[in-house]
Amino acid sequence: MKPLVQAAATLSSASLVGGCLRALGWLRTDSTYVSQTQFFIRKFNICREKSHVAIKILNGYYTELEKHGRIWELEALKQLSSPTSSAHCLQLISNFTLRGRGSAGEHLCLVTQLLGGDIKSLHTVHETVFPLLLAKRILLHVLRGIAHAHSRGVVHTDLKHDNIFFDAHISTETLGNILVSDPPRRHPPEASFDGTVEAAVTQPLPIPTVDEAMERIYVVGDFGSAQSVSNHTTDMITAPPLRPPEIIIGGPWDEKVDIWTFGCLIFELVTGHGLFRYEPLEKYKLDPEHFMLYHMVCYTGEQFRAEQLMVSSRAARFFDTECNLRTSPPLIKYPLEVAIRRYKVIEEPDIYSTAALMRRCLRLNPENRASASELLVDPWFSGVD
């Protein structure tokens, strides 16, 4: 679980010296606030100019997990940022450890570039389906970020709307004016285990218009769930509706899990709706996982093969010895073109080209999926910057 908050201070010699400037938001999972706080920094010497940056501060528990190799965020960011970085991946500028109050323990602090917000907030504010050209721009930038990560042996494993960010696109002067006109605020004091605290009020940066969004650079962020392609610390990855089949059936996996999720995101950004629903289907007595697998077969028109199921530890729960779903629901072909056409958001030629791109990502066997670098030259992205 990962609360995220932002503020600001002076960074000097890997130590946090000054006070907070602004809180941008909290991320939380279930009901527990745990890991990360982001801060604007008042002064940081980059190329001899003062720049605002962000700090993500992990709580004591997550800092201990990082120390013991249970999470891999710091190492992932190091591999992504050196010797060369990508404009479409979060970039590690520095890191240091901060001593917390009382029982909080130590906090690992990750200094990165300042970003403006995520595409979930962009969609929420405008309450409309993204224009196709904007969806293509976002997806192309995400794909470039994925390709860079995979080239460094990093698998993101948690691609979704609130982990895709746009650049801040704001000058130091303008940001200073925002901080003056809308100064930082705090919630009323409340008791904690170590005394009284005053939590920062969330004050995100202004959300761009749709036209402005067409000029933004999009960045794959939050590598808190990232894993090495060759050394996995957990097999429970990816938000359930975006989870690839090999994870559900307990099979071996690699960077191609990100490609499956990317295929789902194509549908979401183009139509404004999710492709899969992680929920039971009472009509056919399918629990959420069975329903996901059933939908995968219907959408792809493929069948799971014995060679894949034989190396998947949970396959017997879902499939019989003939590689059929045990619950025996009627298999109905529902091509991706039909799923896209249902929402009436793009023209017919675009429906076919979008479905063709998705099909390269949504293969039941990960070995058959295209790589990120192969997808980058797909004609669907022609003319997109």
UniProtKB/TrEMBL annotation:
<dbReference type="Pfam" id="PF00069">
    <property type="entry name" value="Pkinase"/>
</dbReference>
<dbReference type="GO" id="GO:0004674">
    <property type="term" value="F:protein serine/threonine kinase activity"/>
</dbReference>
<dbReference type="GO" id="GO:0043484">
    <property type="term" value="P:regulation of RNA splicing"/>
</dbReference>
<protein>
    <submittedName>
        <fullName>Kinase-like protein</fullName>
    </submittedName>
</protein>
<keyword id="KW-0808">Transferase</keyword>
<dbReference type="InterPro" id="IPR000719">
    <property type="entry name" value="Prot_kinase_dom"/>
</dbReference>
<dbReference type="InterPro" id="IPR051175">
    <property type="entry name" value="CLK_kinases"/>
</dbReference>
<dbReference type="GO" id="GO:0005634">
    <property type="term" value="C:nucleus"/>
</dbReference>
<keyword id="KW-0067">ATP-binding</keyword>
<feature type="domain" description="Protein kinase">
    <location>
        <begin position="18"/>
        <end position="381"/>
    </location>
</feature>
<dbReference type="InterPro" id="IPR011009">
    <property type="entry name" value="Kinase-like_dom_sf"/>
</dbReference>
<keyword id="KW-0418">Kinase</keyword>
<dbReference type="InterPro" id="IPR008271">
    <property type="entry name" value="Ser/Thr_kinase_AS"/>
</dbReference>
<keyword id="KW-0723">Serine/threonine-protein kinase</keyword>
<keyword id="KW-0547">Nucleotide-binding</keyword>
<dbReference type="GO" id="GO:0005524">
    <property type="term" value="F:ATP binding"/>
</dbReference>
